[in-house]
Structures
1.
Amino acid sequence: MNAIAAPTPFIALTGFHFRLWPILLAGVLMEAVLIGGRELARLLLKLGPEGFYVGWTFMATALFFQALFAYLCILIMRRVLPEADDHIRWPPDRSYAGVALFIGIVMGLVMLLADYWPEIAAARAPSTPYDVAPLPATAMLVALLCTGFAEETLFRGLMVGMLVVLVPGRLRVGKIDLPIAGYFVALLFGIAHWESFVVDPLHLAIAQQLYAFVWGLIYVWLMERSKSLLAPIISHGVGNAVEVGIVMWMIVHLRST
């Protein structure tokens, strides 16, 4: 008689070795890169010409320094943890760029609904103080398209790359099989948006934590499938730009009606 195969469990954790200190180290690096980049950008812009410290210049400058700091950390990681894969390479096979573009658009729409559903339901302009004049609005959207270069280099390239080695293991849920490091970094990715609990209503802050966690897992999936950071960089930037672009459109058109 043929043996009956045991059913595959819906959830399976394999090869997991928990260590707390690498997770704490990843959190410290996250805050150091994000806060360090923002504060250095703020300092330099305040020292610059009057009127140059505006929304898009601050975002672009902060992203530049965050990407730079994250990459410097990756250079150190390559020396002290050579088995870690930062995925900073051109995709060796399929790029998943088209999939990433589609996912990014969907992400932008989901974030729009989660963050602005009261305004959408009431057909009123959001109160978000974006400068919607053509030049600064375009510059802001371009900066948002580039957010992935900073945040994916930090979260997926550095933090996931490091934790895959130091906190090994994989968690499969249904057909989704990801490194356990990706789940920890997705949680840290949500924590990085903690300020939403200070500036936003509680339900919006909770929604941002939830979608930040899900997005973090999707970015890891794109990175593993493409063996590169290119796809998550595309998806991340497009999602942010789509949401803010629609918000700017709402500000212009709903305030004029």
2.
Amino acid sequence: MAVGIPPRFHGVIRGLDSTGSSPQFEGRFGRLFRTLPPARFKEDDLKKLAAAMVAEEEDDPTPEDQNPRDDEENTGISAGYTYFGQLIDHDLTFDPNSSLDKQNDPEALVDFRTPRFDLDCLYGRGPDDQPYLYEDDGLRFLLGRPLTGNPHDPNTRDLPRNAPLSGGPKRALIGDPRNDENVIVSQLQGIFLRFHNRVVSFLQGTDAIFYDIQRFVRWHYQWAVLHDFLPTIIGEETLHKILPHFKSGKSIFQDPPHLLLYKPKNDPFIPVEFSVAAYRFGHSMVRPVYRLNTTLPDRFAIFSGDPNTSLTGFREFPSQWAIDWSLYFDFGNHPNPFSKERVQPTYKIDSSLVNPLAHLPIPIGGQRPSLAERNLLRGLRMGLPSGQDVARKMGIEPIPDDKLRVGKANQDDTATNPRLTDISPGFRNNAPLWYYILAEAQQQFKNNDTPIRLGPVGGRIVGEVFVGLMLGDKHSFLNQDPNWKPFLDFQNGGKFGIPDLIRQAQKT
């Protein structure tokens, strides 16, 4: 428990002291560390920390052809993983009821998404209940208008969109409207629509029905999550501690999973330590600008007042904005790393967010536009424990206060970044969990080219929840066919990852 903080005068919020490790069937949120006390902070201290975590505005981010490269870039993770992670988040969780302005009880929050890797953000309620998402055959997804600009994929398509008589924004007709909130995740949703259609074509001539096709699409997705996304984000060492059979080559029964934290007694649930803290690591990876394809002369801002230069979503964007995915994932073509053909890296996982994330557009940020402030206050409202308490509970020595810094992980800023305790003495041995997980990753920094992934606390939480949700899903490939592998025709040299999923989608 943090020291020097006065106790609450009004007791414990209903449910927080009794939120079990495994809630009810409805898919409610729960806790990994239900015996740990909530960390206590003054709201003004959290707002000061949020302000310190926001980088200064960049008038002109480092050009792509400059050597050395932008010192905020993370050489270990390509930019597409940020948005693949966003799609995963939308697949697992949807909580429209929690508020930043009142105490929240996780026991009373309902996860309106199934806590499974089942792509319900893609399928919605299926062709019987939402036939307007599907072609007349009830098998294939409907696609939108053609998009141009990707020289590797002349068949790029937008999402299907409505056409309001009022002339308002043309919003996407998809299973989860959040997957239209920016141009990149919107087009990634389109890739998954096309991958489903590709599987339909691949299985044509067999007796496969819609639910067979859906199962194989989900299993390929789950495989890419476990074999590509997770090792990229948490590192192979952490993943192999959780799934040792990945390393040993034995079966999952001979070398079973090793979960220390996530052990639902009944049905899987989403831990608030994961959804409110650990899985928000991706916010630090967001770049201020992205190149969409090499036919367009400019990079585009994540937020801009001009719709012609902004990647904001919930609208029909220009048709020449087709994303060239070889700029977002490594397809093995080894482009010049100092050219507009390069694979764009994410920004580093550290305790700094790019300046635009302090000025979220109203449809996303509402009346509290700072993403850092929103994350920190949500952790307070949810009664999350401190990062140090979680580390101790996991048997990990907490990071000393003098090593908890706030700012960018680069050679110019590391030495002068303020300590967390410089912002407020209330943070002494008492770091907000979301901040702590980012600062923990930041401890890996050695020089500007150091790849940075999640550390032992953040990586273990994310890894165990991912694996635990798949093990808890009786329809996942880990349960139904643990020896299953992606279709041989879909593999690339015996492997299958996100780039291979995209390659297959582009064949439709």
3.
Amino acid sequence: MLFPDPAQVAGYAHGVDTFRPKTDGGDLALAETFTTHRSHLIGVAYRLTSTLADAEDAVQEAWLRLAGLSPVNRAAIRDLRGWLTTVVGRLCLDRLRSAAVQRERYVGPWLPEPLVTPLPGQPGENPLDAVIRDDGVRMAALIVLDRLPPEQRVAFVLHDAFGLPFAEIADALSCTPDAARQYASRARRAVADADPPSRVELVAQQDVLGRFLAAMSSGDVRAVMELLHPDVVMIGDGGGKATTARQLVSGPDKVARFLLGLLRRYGAESMSAVRFVLVNGDLGVVMSDYPGDAEHPPLTGRVIALAMRDGVIAGLYDVVNPDKLGRVQL
């Protein structure tokens, strides 16, 4: 059995709900039941891995494991959603351990793969809408989760976000329930200490971003700084393949001057490449590839996610690595 085929994955990734259960002489009813849990499982796996490709791979592998069970073992599953969530958690734990080694060689800061969806009010329903509604997938929250050890992240997300009992989490982690509880407790304290900005109403985000872009266009450093939180940070992720900040930029003065420097480098006309979108459920922008001109170099397409606190911008997350933008229409 295949679930889903590559064409269906591509349709889902680009926001086109073309997914249908596909079986090869197997149990169509089982495939259709699995489909009802798929958005939930994608949300679980993405919160655990911060990468949609890894999330989709984990969910597909969960399907293969379910489909491979004997009818007797399948009938013994009392809570299919919980069973699948546990399986996805175990699969994501393996991916997190592998990713931790790979990121030691990563060039510059690492950011989650952005989930880009249209602003509300545009026609059609995006299959990712069910995922981005979760406050825990906002970029600022995922950055905190990415700092946790794999076991803590899995225990915290599965229990605090999705209500899985520690006995089942222990099965995913191959530890005792008490150990799983300790993992979640330590992660909970770390998340509370980090205090990532909460999601605010979209209307308020639009107001701040509109004023911020106007201040940027004016070139007035002070006007830009007034819309930045005292603890503002900017994180750029180019992966060594595209240009952005190679180190974390913090503080209103440094962030404002960095952004205005980019605007001068690429020219005011590059702002025409900006369009508003939702990035992981919060307001953000997509900048399309911009060709530049005789005086300015070309601008690489990027996704910029925002986080706000106290009515101003507290975080800017600049994703430029092309490997993370393959699903985004630039």
4.
Amino acid sequence: MQLTANDVDRFEAARPRLEAIAYRLLGSAGEAEDAVQETFLRWQAADVDQVRVHEAWLTKVLTNLCLNQLGSARARRETYVGQWLPEPLLDGDPMLGPADTAEQRDSVSYAVLTLMERLSPNERAVYVLREAFEYPHREIAEILDLTEAASQQIFHRAKKHIADGKARTEIDEATARRIVEEFLAAATSGRTEPLVRLLTEDAVSIGDGGGKALARAKAVEGALAVAKFMRGLFKPGKAKRTLVGGSPEVYVTTANGGPALVAVVDSRVIGVMCLEIAAEGIAAVRNQVNPDKLERVTERWAAADHGEPLLISF
């Protein structure tokens, strides 16, 4: 049916929240935008005058679209080339959603988005709606067609799964920058010892190239192995410059609320390396180089003031 200007405005007012929910559920900015657009089409086809609570209706439609998407995504990821990582977002991106509480910030951290891949679609939906958006279990139950008791049980189970796998600790921006600078200096020193000292004993390195950019097919595990891998990754070489189309400029930044490095060639982001910090050191290095998952970052990077690069690599 034909929407009135007021109906469209009501949807547009809800769009930022819907995109933030969809991004957390899907781990992909592009898929989140598609899910929100499909929600708008459902809104356009509905008899909106009969919708009593518009926010609840839109959230229910979006969440169920995302649940369907998660089901098919699991099948697609069985044939995904190499390791799968979420799409990183630079701080300030509205799709990151609310960041007023530690729980909200944590729910969109790169580490937690990666851990959420282990959850069932229902666990992921309950966790996101409760932890990040503070929906009461009564409303979550209505959205997901559950009982309130089931929603509570699913949430506690999901939260335990996340807590069991999470090493990240909250650090301030100055400390994050210092850690990243130390990591970069150690990685480019040509020696493994400085890197080993910065890493936890069970540190892991994961890269996602999606078959479209060079990335190791399996995770690298252990401080010494990660240190050797990083030393090789940052070692200059003509073949590397040819592969990426030039000498990357490397910047220190914040992505998904955590410390990160961004590699840029001719204003195009070719990689975002997110560091997961634990009390004992750097617990994980996750490097997103799949160009399909760097389009939004590239757009926002081009429009932002990012200062001078810390390093011109290769």
